[in-house]
């Protein structure tokens, strides 16, 4: 890609970290374009999750499951409010999170990695999901802090 080029570089040429941030930015942009307002912009990863391979990928598999469950709760809310357009977006997001869960579960050695016939749905609302993240220390907890992609900066634990 040189000066004056209109060719966008292939996302596959980006680092995995850049692709992840871009994907999260796309999610945030779509959410805000639909009128959404983020309820938090900072997440915390407890240091115990970061100590080695198994705790990290186990926590990631579990978090992706919680993300799917949050979107199931959101779909129900949108359906009740007569907003099939937003229910569709929640389904699309949940499907993408299911891919993340599958990859994390596969990486940690689960076989088959798609080990659920139905996604768990423990939350009646997205607020219950956020409360669970607070209980687990992923919001307002101790550890490595990461701001939403719109801010594109992270700070290590102090």
Number of discrete helical segments: 4
Major sheet: arrangement of strands: 1-2-3
Stretches where pLDDT is under 50 for at least 5 consecutive residues are 1-6, 150-158
Report the helical percentage: 40-55%
Summarize the structure.
Helix content is 51%, strand content 6%. With 158 residues, it is mainly alpha-helical.
Structure write-up:
This protein is mainly α and 158 residues long. The protein has helices at residues 16-33, 53-80, 84-107, 126-136, and strands at 42-45, 144-147, 154-155. β2 (144-147) and β3 form a beta hairpin. α2 runs antiparallel to α3 (84-107). It starts with 15 loop residues before the first helix and ends with a strand. 15% of the residues are buried.
């Amino acid at each position: 890609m040189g000066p004056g080029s209109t060719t966008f570089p292939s996302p596959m040429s980006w680092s995995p970290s850049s692709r992840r941030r871009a994907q999260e930015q796309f999610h945030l942009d779509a959410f805000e374009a639909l009128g959404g307002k983020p309820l938090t912009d900072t997440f915390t990863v407890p240091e115990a999750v970061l100590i080695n391979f198994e705790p990290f990928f186990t926590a990631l598999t579990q978090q992706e499951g919680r993300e799917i469950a949050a979107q199931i709760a959101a779909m129900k809310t949108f359906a009740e409010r007569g907003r099939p357009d937003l229910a569709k977006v929640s389904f699309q997001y949940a499907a993408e999170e299911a891919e993340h869960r599958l990859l994390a579960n596969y990486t940690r050695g689960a076989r088959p990695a798609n080990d659920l016939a139905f996604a768990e749905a423990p939350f009646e609302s997205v607020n219950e999901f956020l409360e669970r993240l607070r209980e687990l220390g992923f919001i307002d907890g101790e550890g490595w802090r990461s701001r939403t992609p719109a801010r594109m900066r992270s700070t290590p634990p102090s």
